[in-house]
Amino acid sequence: MAKSKEPKKDLYTIPIDGFFQSAFSVDCVIFGYHEKELKVLLIQRGTSPYEGDWALPGDLVYPHEDLDTAADRVLMELTQLEDMSMLQVKTFGKVDRHPLGRVITVAYFALVELQEISPMASSWANDIKWHSVKRIPKLAFDHKDILMECLDALRSLIKREPLWTRVLPKKFTLTELQEVFETVLVKKYDKGNFRKKVNGMKFLKRLEESQINVRHRPSTLYKFDQKLFLQYRESGSVVEF
Amino acid sequence: MAKSKEPKKDLYTIPIDGFFQSAFSVDCVIFGYHEKELKVLLIQRGTSPYEGDWALPGDLVYPHEDLDTAADRVLMELTQLEDMSMLQVKTFGKVDRHPLGRVITVAYFALVELQEISPMASSWANDIKWHSVKRIPKLAFDHKDILMECLDALRSLIKREPLWTRVLPKKFTLTELQEVFETVLVKKYDKGNFRKKVNGMKFLKRLEESQINVRHRPSTLYKFDQKLFLQYRESGSVVEF
DNA sequence: TCAAAAGTGTTATAGGTACACCCATGT
DNA sequence: ACATGGGTGTACCTATAACACTTTTGA
Question: Most buried one in A134, B63, B131, B137, CB count within 10 A?
Fold first, then answer.
């Protein structure tokens, strides 16, 4: 996360030669999870406006680039994660949301495994860092609003969509799964009741394998079956965590 | 809904003098309800591209206009309804969604009382008409996708948000309310159970008034209490229809 | 007195919550 | 043997669904 001496690439510094009138951008709320911690990836701006402030990573949408692709690109540039699909949440389009001109921005979010951010990514800004969602600093533009909307979206979607598969190993224990939900939703689940619910979800398949080298009774491992999940969804059953 | 000889105002005809590269627009899915019928307001395009095809009403966003304001303006120009807030659903930004250039469009919807469309509105297009949601014609651009997304949004939101207040009189019967839900969600509710649910919603207040001149037992009238509803919502109770 | 819709009550079942207790493993 | 979490069972409560029945009006 060291500062870089390379020329900064700034997200919102559009050719300011009098031509900048309007533009669209994507802003990405990248949530990182690891062992009962939920964080969000923020950059520290290296250029005006809001120089030095923390902000969401984002970029202008290229002329021949789909909106979704632009969001995925930002994620990829920061985390090297490919094939991730960022989820669209809401578009922010107040006239005065950007001091230099009209910028309409589309907010996206994703939940990924917490990881070290490669130095490459630091060309984006002065600094780039994971921040606990419990302690969000003051943010540039209307990024605080954007972040909050995306946090709401994450909390509501994770109950229905298998977003959590991104942050757990292929084979996981039910306690690990329960911890993801407890962390994201900031609430406790009863162990027994949680397991009863999982039992009703046939796409969560119990394996014939257990943990090893743990100093307590080893836990049975489970895996997520994508095909069964899709069938499940087709059938119209709406089971939520 | 007669054709107009006035110069057509086309939603997507931007100064095509070689400068048109990108623009943002709003597209509005205006649902109209009246007596167990759910319709949607469509215009017939008077200009290329897609001339003659049906399409959603929409317009480019003015340089100094908020996104939400633009959507409300489109609704107002068509229906004379003010103080309506269109609800944002999703932004559509595929590169090739508009044949003449890059147009990113933000989809909004509203549910309003079905009404005659004023002749004034017809300056927008060749024709403008309510279509049953059960028989949607082929639509221009990706408007079919947009419409479907908005229909999903309506169906999911109406259970939690009092959108239905827009299509019922101030004083209404529970049967009228039930019919709104049955029509929008295309399913039947049990009378007794529906009333039990309403009884639990303290913001639906029973009045000391009844219907008159009906050839059956007169129904008690109810009203929606906005203040109580907001309290309810603050308190975190999540009661849905 | 009849049709039509309002309005109420009963029962069965499913799902959620709280909690207690036993089990398997490493140290 | 004991600490640590894994794993299961039960009893209670509430929400929902299906359905039957009574009530009030105009014609």
Answer: B131
Least confident of A46-50, A109-113, A118-122, B190-194: A118-122
| Rounded distance between C-alpha atoms, residue A104 and residue B22, angstroms | 12
pLDDT band, very low/low/confident/very high, at A214 (cuts 50, 70, 90):
very high
- Cα B210–B212–B215 angle (5° rounding)? 115
Last residue of a domain, one of B137, B157, B177: B157
- Arithmetic mean of pLDDT, A103-129: 86
B157, B183, B200 — which closes off a domain?
B157
- Give the pLDDT confidence of A3-41 residue by residue, as tens digits: 333 434 444 444 444 444 689 999 999 999 999 999 999
Domain range spanning residue B210?
169-234
Q: Is residue A99 part of a domain?
A: yes
A68 at B interface, C-beta within 8 A = yes
When pLDDT is cut at 50, 70 and 90, the band that residue A100 belongs to is confident
Q: Inter-chain contact A65–B91, Cβ cutoff 8 Å?
A: no
- Give, in Å, how far the C1' of D10 lies from the CA of B59: 62
For the segment A177-202, the average pLDDT, to the nearest whole number, is: 97
Interface test with A, best of B67, B72, B91 (most A CBs within 10 A): B91
| Residue ranges of E strands in chain A | 22-34, 37-44, 54-55, 58-60, 87-92, 102-113, 127-132, 204-210, 220-224
Does residue B9 lie within any of the structural domains? no
Cβ proximity of B29 and B108 under 8 Å:
yes
pTM: 0.92
Residues of chain B neighbouring A88 (CB-CB closer than 8 A): 90-91
Q: Are residues B42 and B78 in the same domain?
A: yes
CB-contacted nucleotides of strand C (7 Å): 3-10, 16-20, 23-27
Domains in chain A: how many in total? 2
Residue B125 belongs to domain with CATH number: 3.90.79.10
Q: Residue B216 CA to nucleotide C13 C1', Å?
A: 35
Measured CA angle at A99 (ends A6, B14), to 5 deg = 105
Rounded to whole angstroms, the distance from the CA of residue B30 to the C1' of nucleotide D16 is: 33
- Say whether both A93 and A181 belong to one domain: no
B91: nearest CA in chain A?
A91
* B24, B64, B90 ranked by CB distance to A24: nearest: B24
* B215 and B138 inside one domain: no
Degrees (nearest 5) of the Cα angle B138, B139, B142? 125
The 10s digit of each residue's pLDDT in B52-73 is 999 999 999 999 999 999 999 9
Nearest to A27 by CA among A145, A115, A130, A169: A145
Our CA angle for A121, A132, A163, nearest 5°, is 80
Convert the pLDDT of each residue in B88-133 to its tens digit: 999 999 999 999 889 999 999 999 999 998 766 666 678 999 999 9
